[in-house]
Design goal:
The chain is mostly helical and 145 residues long. The protein has one helix and no strands. The longest helix is centred in the middle third of the chain and has 143 residues. It is rod-shaped and about 200 Å long. The protein starts with a helix and ends with a helix. The model has no long low-confidence stretch (mean pLDDT 93).
Length: 145
């Protein structure tokens, strides 16, 4: 009976020791879980900050893209306006060129007419001078005899 009591006491001590070890392992595991939980929370916080940073960068880029798009639209509007102005200028130049061509034709006709008149006057002068020369020769011939 004494031996059984001793074995029972020994078993109780062993059970207590196992219970204490199980408690120690549970506490160690709890510390590991707490550490893991803290690390996960820190990672989640870091990821949240990174996401916030990414969101701010995307918003900034989105604003820049909007500005670039607006600048492009403004440039397209300016180009369209410049194109209209160039078309208007080309039309005016075409009209001016046509008017100049007509004016040059008129001036050329006037110069041709003037040239013809000069030829006529010259021919008349030459004929008149020939007549006067012939008359002067005949007067000189008449005086010489």
């Amino acid at each position: 009976l004494m031996e059984m009591q001793a074995q029972s006491k020994h078993l109780k001590l062993g059970f207590k020791q196992h219970e204490w070890q199980a408690q120690k392992v549970a506490e160690d595991n709890q510390h590991v879980l707490d550490d893991l939980g803290n690390k996960v929370e820190a990672k989640i916080e870091d990821l949240g900050k990174d996401m916030q940073s990414v969101i701010l960068k995307v918003q900034g880029m989105s604003g820049a893209v909007r500005n670039d798009f607006q600048t492009l639209q403004d440039a397209q509007s300016s180009a369209a306006m410049a194109h209209k102005q160039v078309k208007t200028i080309n039309i005016c130049l075409a009209k001016t060129n046509e008017e100049l061509a007509q004016e040059f034709d008129r001036v050329a006709r006037s110069l041709q007419h003037l040239s013809n008149e000069i030829k006529t006057v010259r021919s008349s002068l030459v004929e008149g001078l020939r007549g006067e020369l012939a008359e002067a020769k005949s007067q000189m011939a008449g005086q010489g005899s």
